[in-house]
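EI: anyone free to look at a 342-residue chain?
SC: sure, send it
EI:
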Amino acid sequence: IYYDNRLIDYPFQMNIHQLPKEEFIDCLYDLFNKEEKEEYDNFLDMLYGKFGKSIVEKFLKPYNEKLYACDLKNLDKDAMGRFFPYADIHAIINNMKNSTDTSYNNYFLYPKKGAQVIVNNILRNINQNNIMLNTTVISIDIKNKEVILSNGQVVQYDNLINTIPFHKFLMLFNNDKYLQLSLKLSYNKVLVFNLGFNKKSTYNKEHWIYFPDKNINFYRVGFYDNILGTDKLSMYIEIGYPKNTVIDQKEIDKQLMLTLENLNKARIIDDNFKLEEYVSIIMDPAYVHINTDTDMEIKKIMAELQQNQVYSIGRYGGWTYCSMEDCMIEAKELAEKLKMEV
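SC: here you go
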């Protein structure tokens, strides 16, 4: 975590002893005097109740506001599920003497040739003539079990499995209830820059760094070169936006300039670094906003769709916060279920 011109180990709440003495005392005092509750109203309420004012306002609140690009009161208390690094006072105190990182992503496996290897292996076992590229679904007739494609073709189905974002999927049905829920669903967008420079940074061990400072435009950066062991700085930058923000070329150019300025301020690069290549990607949606009201409506409509042999799965199809491996397991389990029913 890049905090006040220094690096603090992640997660912040487990490493408050690395802060300057006065800030450490503030965090420790508020941690001991926090007001826990049986039930929390929302995500922000939960943060204050679990960690106290100082930890929340120094990191957890500003960082997550940058990430989710929304008022944290609009998120469910369990919006991040198992991916949120909870820690009690006992664990925080113990970590001051015996530092351990038990976060969900402190260790991971990744295919040497990239995630495309997984897709290629799946392709070997299916009839590739049945794959339609550059074709979109424009409407779904759930009563007659028909899908109408952008090329005019009508495809009949026994079971329909969706993985596109749920709010977009709902718009394919001629159903006012589905459309209303689609418009209510909240999420953020993320502008991603992939940057390639002419030489290595002094940041030559870090895999990724979080930035809670609201004066810095990005909330996280990552270092491809440190993960892959290459000799030039290559990195990703992530910038969060509310769902209705228009991210046009002018905005992209502006954010690229701000990014280079802030990388310089953080001493990741200096004036001798040359940007050799870059690409920008807009993730739309990126992180879905989970709240109690819409979550109940989603569950009802999901159940209704499943009664008609329509399944919406995955991080975006299921409108949830999960990992790639969660999505793979969910797809495998659904495939096995449907195979048993044949």
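EI: The CA atoms of residues 88 and 272 lie 45 Å apart.
SC: 👍
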